[in-house]
Amino acid sequence: MITTLMNTTMKRALTIRGETIWITMMKDHAMLQRQWTRKAALLLGLSCTAVLGASPALAAAHSSNAMINLVRLLVAQGTISKDKGDALIAEATREAEEARAEEIVVAANAARAAVGAGAGAAGAPQMAGAGTAAAAGTPAAAAGTQMAANLPPAPTGTIRVPYIPDVVRDRIRDDIKADVMREAKAEGWASPGEAAPDWTRRVTLGGDLRLRTQSNFYSRFNSTLIPNFPSIIATGPINLLSGNIPFLNTTVNKYGLALMRARFNMDVAITPKISAGFQIATGNDANPISQKATLGSDFFKRNIYLTKAFVSAKVTDWASVTGGRFGNPFYSSDAMFGPELSMEGLYGEFTLRNRALGHADFKLRGGAFPLDFGSSNFPDVSTIKQSTPQKWLLAAQVETDWRIGAKSRFDLAAGYYAFTNVAGRQSKPCALGYAVTQCSTDGFAPYFIQGGNSLFQMRQIVDAAGNPVNGNQLLGLVQKFHVLDVIGTLHVPVGPGTEFSLMGDYINNLAFHRSRACRYGVAGEPVNNGGAGGSGNICDPVAANRTPYLAGRQGYQVMASFGNPNPNARGEWRVWAGYKYLESDATLDAFVDPDFHLGGTNAKGFILGGSLGVARNVRAGARWLSANQIVGDPLAIDVLQIDLTVGF
C-alpha cells in the first residue's frame, strides 16, 4: 500500500497490478504545500514508470502536471483504458484550475494585508495561539525557510503566498473593513449615523397601546334619583323642574366593556437646548382626563386627538421653560389630577441640587394655564356685546427629594393651585324669549364636569313683568377653588429591581366657605350635596328649617406598593393597595381620576391592583376600585379593570 504523507482534502484510488495507489488531490492548501505534493506525485510517477518499463516516447510526451504524466504512463502500459485515462486527465485539469483560482484569491488578500498593515517589523503578520508556526529562529521556522529555498522556479505570472491560518485571515478581514469604514466616514457615504438625513437623528418616536376590559358593579341600595349632572352641563340650558332631566344609572351592572387606548409620541431635539414634542391619542370625546375609546360601535372608526404639542427650552443647567400643551408637570396624585391629563399654557422649572448638606435637591415649579378665554361674540343674537370672564389656573409648587442613606429617598412637595373665575355667578334678571337666548353670567358656566362639586342655578329668569318664572337653566359651581396639595412618597429599595413605596397626599380647598351656599338665597341654593331633614331647602329663610349642606373641602389618599417601580420586562411585577377620601369641593371634579367612582369627587373607598411583565415592553395588570359617595343620596360603585399594555 502506497500513501502520501501530506494533508489532503481529496483522494483517488488506482489499482496497478494488484496494488492500490492513493493519489492525493490538493484543493485548499497554500503554494508551499502544493509544490511538495507535485514533487511527491512526480516521484511516484517515475517509480511506476521504472517498474512498468515505460517507453521513451511516452516519457517524452510529458506535462507540467505530474498527475497527468502519471495517467498517461498508466494508459501506455495498458493498466487502464484510454477512455478512463482521458476522464482522469480532464478531472485533474479542472481541479488544478480551481486550485489556481483559489491561490489568486489568497494572494490578493495577502497583498491587501501587507498594504494595510504596512509590513510590520518582521515583514509578515505574527501568528498567535498554540499550535501555530513558531517564532523566527525555531527549528520549524528554519525548516520552512529551507523548504521554500528548495522549491523549483515558479512559471511566469505565478504568485507564491504562504499558508494563512484562520486567525490571520480574520485579522486581514477586520483590517480591510476598518480601512473601508475610514474611507466611507471621510467621504460621508456609509458612516454609521451619517447615511440617514440629519433630522432623523434628532427625532425620537414612541407610544403604547392598551387593551382593557372593564366591569361596573352598582349596589342594590343605591338611590335611583341622582341627576346626571355631567350630561346636564354638556347638553346646555335645561329646565330642571320640567321632569325631563337625565338621571344616572345606579343599579344596572355593566359587564366586560371593551376599551382601547392608543398613543403615539414624537420628540424632536431642535438644538442642544431647545426641543419640541407631540402626542396624538384616542378618546371617546375631547374631555381633558381620559384617552380611552369604547369599542363596539358598529365598527365606526375611532377619533384621534392632539393631546400634546409643546416647545421646551433649557435656559440654563438649572432652569427650563415650556409652552404649549403638555403632560401634567406637577408632582401630584390622581386625587388632584388624573394620570392622562394634559395642561396648556406656560410652565417653568428651577432646580437647586445638593442642598441641605448634600442630602436634597429642590425644585420650584410654576405656570399659568388658561382654561377658557371666553366668547368674543356674547350675547350671540344681540347687537350689544358684553365681555365674558377669562378662566385660568395659576399654580406653583416646591419639591424636595431627601436622600436617606445610600439608596432610600423621601420625595415631598407642596403645591398651590388657584383656579380663577370658575365659580358661578347669578345673572341679572333675564327675560328669556324673542331676541334673548342668553343671560348675563352664562360665561361662568363650566364646560365639563365629572360630578361631585356643589352646583346651583345661575340664571335669574323672569317674565316680561319681572316676576320669577321657571325656564331653561345653566348650572354653575358654588365654591371657589384655591387648592393646597401636600404630597410625599417614601422609596425604600429591598432588593435588585424591587422597592417598597408609601405615598400620602393631602388636599384642602382653602377658598371653601359654607356661607357661599346661600349667598343668592333660595333661588340660588345648591341642587346637590344636601343631607336629610328640614324643609328640603338648604337655604330656607328660617334657619331652623334648613336642610344641612354637607359639602366638604378636604381630601386625602394613602397608597402602598411593593415590587418593581416600572414593570417592563418578563417576570417583573408590582402590587399596590390604597385608600382614597375626596370630599365634594376639595378640588375641581373635572380634572381628577376618571375611574375611581367613575370619576369626580364626593367619593371614598379602596383600591387594589397589580401589574406583571409578560415580555419586554408588554405587561398585564388588574385593578379593583371600590367607592361610595360621601354625602347625598347613596351611590356605591365598584370597578374591575383588566389590562394588557404594549409599548414601543
Describe it:
The chain has 648 residues and is α+β, with helices and mostly antiparallel strands. It folds into two domains: 10-120 and 139-164, no CATH class; 200-512 and 551-647, Porin, CATH 2.40.160.10. It contains seven helices and 23 strands. It has helices at 31-52, 56-60, 66-76, 82-117, 139-149, 166-187, 229-235, and strands at residues 10-16, 19-25, 203-218, 254-269, 274-282, 293-294, 304-316, 319-327, 342-355, 360-372, 391-404, 408-420, 429-430, 455-457, 460-461, 475-477, 481-495, 498-509, 554-563, 573-582, 603-615, 618-629, 636-647. The strands form four sheets. A 16-stranded antiparallel barrel has the order 3-4-5-7-8-9-10-11-12-17-18-19-20-21-22-23. A two-stranded antiparallel ribbon has the order 1-2. Strands 13-15 form a two-stranded parallel ribbon. α1 (31-52) runs parallel beside α3 (66-76), α3 packs antiparallel against α4 (82-117) and α4 packs across α6. The longest helix is centred in the N-terminal third of the chain and has 36 residues, at 82-117. The protein is elongated and about 140 Å long. Mean pLDDT is 83; it is low at 1-61 and 118-144.
Helices and strands, with pairings:
Layout: E1 10-16, E2 19-25, H1 31-52, H2 56-60, H3 66-76, H4 82-117, H5 139-149, H6 166-187, E3 203-218, H7 229-235, E4 254-269, E5 274-282, E6 293-294, E7 304-316, E8 319-327, E9 342-355, E10 360-372, E11 391-404, E12 408-420, E13 429-430, E14 455-457, E15 460-461, E16 475-477, E17 481-495, E18 498-509, E19 554-563, E20 573-582, E21 603-615, E22 618-629, E23 636-647
Parallel strand pairs: 13-15
Antiparallel strand pairs: 1-2, 3-4, 3-23, 4-5, 4-6, 5-7, 7-8, 8-9, 9-10, 10-11, 11-12, 12-17, 14-16, 17-18, 18-19, 19-20, 20-21, 21-22, 22-23
Helix pairs in contact: 1-3, 3-4, 4-6
